[in-house]
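S.,

As promised, the pyridoxal-5'-phosphate run. Input:
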Amino acid sequence: MIPLARPSVGPREEELLLETLRSGRLALGPRLAEFEAALSRRARDLPVSAVSSGTAGLHLAIRAAGVEAGDEVVTTPFSFVASANCLLFEGARPVFCDIDPRTLNLDPGAAAAAVSERTTGLLPVHIFGYPAELPAFERLAAERGLWLVEDACEALGAFHADGAPVGARGNLSVFAFYPNKQLTTGEGGAVVCPDAEVKARIDSERNQGRAPDMGWLDHDRLGYNYRLDDLSCALGVAQLERLDELLAGRTRVAALYSEALADIDGLDLPAPNEGGDRRSWFVYVVQLPRGIDRDAAILALRERGVDSKPYLPAIHLLSFYRRRFGHREGEFPVCEDVASRSLALPFYPELTDGQIERVVEALHEVLATSLSRSA
Ligand SMILES: Cc1ncc(COP(=O)(O)O)c(C=O)c1O
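Predicted complex:
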């Protein structure tokens, strides 16, 4: 079976992990600062706080932005559920609006229309590693006095048209390092902070609210255990050393897929870069032609040794969100259309040309059969 994702780890990762293991410093040791400094170099030298997951990073980022219970925050329904859930942790309400059909990112026009007097923040997501329209969201935030947090969990290595690396515009921005990501630490995440003061707050809150001098058991605010351990940081340091190579591997696989799948009628491929924005390839998600039975297609692909899955479901239509907020089909038609047709194909840097061919052949076959079945 060709799996959907596989972390790419090599001898350098093994070396640094063993070194760290033998050092006896497994948490709150020197690897944390080393990993943060290396990430910071990728983010225009902005201060970075490494944390235990992307979700933890989002939670601390919105707290640092000033979210309060009862606030409304405008965000996208086409994302991994954590970008909306983090608002619920603080008693805020996600206000969803529709997405751009090309980039699949929050549509700035729809976001502007969704801002009300109860809105205090914006939370755009760089979905599938394609840069969200940050200049437009920054203008909207400035005009309406809103805070802005970027969910860049899927977008390490992407660039905006103006040359800024995604996550390095000076807004609170969050990366994630789960094993399917461009860079992995096992579990893990990081917050890029606008300044040292915000980093100090996040460093404290990730560590049980410890006072800035880190006095033992001196806690001067509410905090969490969102620390990233030194083994994870060692993995991150090794991965960062070869991030460009890892990203190039992903770009190669995406280009081969896009070329080989271009001729399938009705199949929508991920948007190519446009206007100077540069995607960092996280997943390869196609949208099946309308009328195809996706579950049947997934089973037929599996029979041919190819793993695939729907990616992503619309957040507002998840059972929990329907129950809690009364959401219904038809609220965000672009998102719902994309979510109902999306299919993630196997995607990681080491996929060989032969494996890519097998996936492409299998998809051609499955779609030809399903198309003729429904014809
Ligand atoms: C868009 C987005 N936001 C948030 C997260 C949460 O990150 P984590 O799984 O590390 O908590 C993810 C990770 O899958 C994600 O893709």
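The two ends are 30 Å apart (CA to CA). Residues 53-55, 79-80, 82-83, 125, 151, 153-154, 176, 178, 189 surround pyridoxal-5'-phosphate (CB under 6 Å).

- D.
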